[in-house]
Amino acid sequence: MDSKTLNSRFKEVSEQIQKAVADDPALSAMIGVLLVMFENQVSLNKSQSSEIKQLTKRIEALTLTIEKLSTKLGNKAITVRKTTNENINGKGSERKKGIDSSSKEKKQKEKKEVPVNDDVSVTDKEVCIDIDGKELSLEDARKKVGTVFTGKDGRRYKYVRINDSSGKIDIDISVRHTRYSKLQVVAVDENGNEISEVKVTPTVYPETDFLKKSSMSIGLMSLILEQWLVLKSPLNRISQYLLRYNISFTRQQLYSYTDTTAALLMPIFKHMESYLKEATFIGVDETYWSCREKGKIKGPPEDEPGRKSHRSKSKTLRSYVFGIVSKTVCLYYHSLERSADIPKNIILDNQVSADCFIESDAFYRKMFSIKKDKDGHSSRVFSHGICWVHGRRNFCELVNYGTHKNGSPIQEIIDNHWEQDIDDARYFIESITNCFKVHNTLVEKCIKNEKLDICELKKKELTPLIDKIFDKAHNIYKTIKKERANSKEKQNAEPERKCSDRLYKSIVYMVNNEDRLKAFLSSPYGVMTNNETEEKFRELDLLRNGMIASDTCKGASNLTEFYSLYKTCLLHNIDFRTYIKTIITIMMLHINEIEFEKDAKGTITGYKDHKISSEILDELMPWNMA
Q1: CA 462 distance to own-chain centroid
Q2: CA dist 490 → 348, 497, 501, 619 (Å)
Q3: Residue 27: CB partners within 8 Å, gap ≥ 6?
Q4: Which of 41, 138, 456, 560 has most Cβ atoms within 10 angstroms of its Cβ?
Q5: Which residues of the chain are modeled with pLDDT < 70?
Q6: pTM (predicted TM-score)
Q7: How many CB atoms lie within 10 A of CB 364?
Q8: From CA 277, how far away is CA 282, in angstroms rounded?
Q9: In this structure, are strands 378-380 and 317-326 parallel, antiparallel, or unpaired?
Q10: Terminal-residue alpha carbon distance, the chain
């Protein structure tokens, strides 16, 4: 660098210094003195070319100092402006209009940290799977590499290498991290040379091949399903729970893994349906459900067949879960429509016997038990009765609404002269309750003595009581029906009796459903209530309230499948977690016999069909694994 270049460079640096310290008088004076001293030093050393390099280094150091000083002064100015603005407008006001914060990075919302339990015992393990599915230590597996053996088919095989398979996480008393690997073999001749024409099919090992690309193990999946169904915890809470053990799965991952597991266990669910044909009693009921999936097409409601199908635009889609419960199995199905044909078609597809008695509520109308053939002829395919509890409940609502705690009628009942409604409602409540007691007594007698005919006992002791109830209902119906006709025709004639809308609806329910309410009398398997079926929906209601809604309709269908397995296990006193772990392990051994729906990437998205024998599926039924 020559003297001219050095002088021009020094002038540039001097101007930058003066601009940087112009706002601070004290600092400007101090820098001015330094510049004068530095300029004198430059003039003295112009003739000394040996010291030019050293002078250049000093100028570069001074330039770096100037840049740092400029940055510091600039930040100080911004900080002063920010502090002044916060004092006037409050903290955080730098984001408001007029404050330049474009250079600042947007602060991301801090996620709530889940406390990690440091006391959790974690064990690490490495396992190698032999060609026959047996577990080996890595040391024993390494010893086998290079050796030759004769297989069951008589061919000679050689262990060539150990392939890394997958890592799995499980929770028992402690957290277990297991790293799996597999021994690979090839067919060889007598000289030990590989026979390339013979392809060796790898053996399926459930523990390592279940959700192979993930660290999800069979034991951990059974724990997740237990918490989901038994403890009623939504999957997002289960995800947070697993973080306490340093196990990281997002809610979306858990949904994906449970979806694949549901497709794997679908052959068991389908085989459970086949046991409906052996049932002598089936209870049918439904409850509502909610899904967040938008854009689904919904058909017309059951009571409005004239309406067209429409596409849902709401935040949550109202759907329904149907339950079909027998003495052996509990089956649940998810549907967008509330149609009586859904359980009816399932029952008919599984060839339920004509002697079977099906109990439901009044939503399932008279045509529920009727089937039309190709020629249009109708025939009854099973006995159908409706629950007496719903009939009694209508009268109970009238008494609870129309009376005080001491039993006296409220003022509205007195003003409208509806005192007789209260007396009639009490009569029906007492009469129906007495029928329940008599029916229970007859059932207990037949259990103790199998030679007794339940239908004969019903006809002798229960039918007269039922007939009295309906005689009373018909007599009241005639008077209140005449009153309603007079009011519609605006006649001036005084009606025989005034009644409340609650009594009218209760009497109409009894009269219109008389045939189905009496159906249990002629069937040896008939009952008066559907309480057992409705009670099995209570846990589903708790789960619905905890989840608020399912993300997709497919997720709701998966839930009903797992809930069917869970309630069937409870029916036969089987531990659900142990059962799930067992059936997943066995189904993995037959995974090549199941046909799945897959996307373009080959990921399992659903179930199509299977070729697993019924003998194997029979062994996997809960009552056969007690």
Answers
A1: 45
A2: 49, 16, 18, 70
A3: 21
A4: 560
A5: 1-7, 9-10, 13, 16-120, 173, 294-315, 482-496, 548-549
A6: 0.74
A7: 22
A8: 10
A9: unpaired
A10: 95
